């Protein structure tokens, strides 16, 4: 009798025990494959927030600005911190088609660095704070990446797309990194897409060099997070560079390469959060310079 009762209880437990995969069910009870899970994606209050190049939005005092051009589409997206009067990052998509150099770089004697029309007047500087600061207007989305037409290039000169950079840094290792990304894009296939997010560090006191007399935060470090999508899937890499008043244009860029996971630890920014979780984890853990042509 005891044996019979034991086997009845065991059978009951086996029937009532949930399967190991129960945590992967969606709200409708259907199974969700691991590559479909995405627990940290942006809330898509605007469809652009779901684009792969857009990192996790900070919220709070930050404003997301989307710059588009008719016939071209989204040019780039940036996050502006109204309290810090600084941009946190700018991001864009790069393809062989949309980085074609068709027009010349924008130039104006009277308004070389326009105010961003999508930034409220109360959040703007009353005048250009870069002049007399000793720092370059450091493009985050590079002018050279956006020469497809005049309107697209003009938008890269908005003050919201600028961070203060020493000239030796801006015209040195930063420009070399920008040129390297364009090289990767142009060497790829027509359908390859590069999702790029770049900026300077503004969120931690020990990652800020100074605040200028005109109120500009000067980042101590600059970064690029790069995700490539091609016929083989996804691959990712990041650049991290100290902002020095020194010429490092002859440096090997391999020495600046880190994983996206490492970059997230350094900056506190969640890059490529709109990737499915399994793809994001794999791509962001990797740091293999040889995959990117470096020995």
Q: What do these coordinates show?
A:
- With 295 residues, this protein is an alpha+beta fold.
- It is built from five helices and eleven strands, in the order H-E-E-E-E-H-E-H-E-E-E-E-E-E-H-H.
- The protein has helices at residues 2-16, 150-155, 167-187, 260-267, 277-285; strands at residues 62-69, 73-81, 86-94, 136-139, 162-165, 193-200, 208-211, 217-219, 221-230, 233-242, 257-258.
- Strands 1-2-3-6-9-10-11 form a seven-stranded antiparallel β-sheet, sandwiched between helices. It has a two-stranded antiparallel ribbon with strand order 4-5. Strands 7-8 form a two-stranded antiparallel ribbon.
- It starts with a helix and ends in a 10-residue tail after the last helix.
- Residues 1-35 have low confidence and may be disordered.
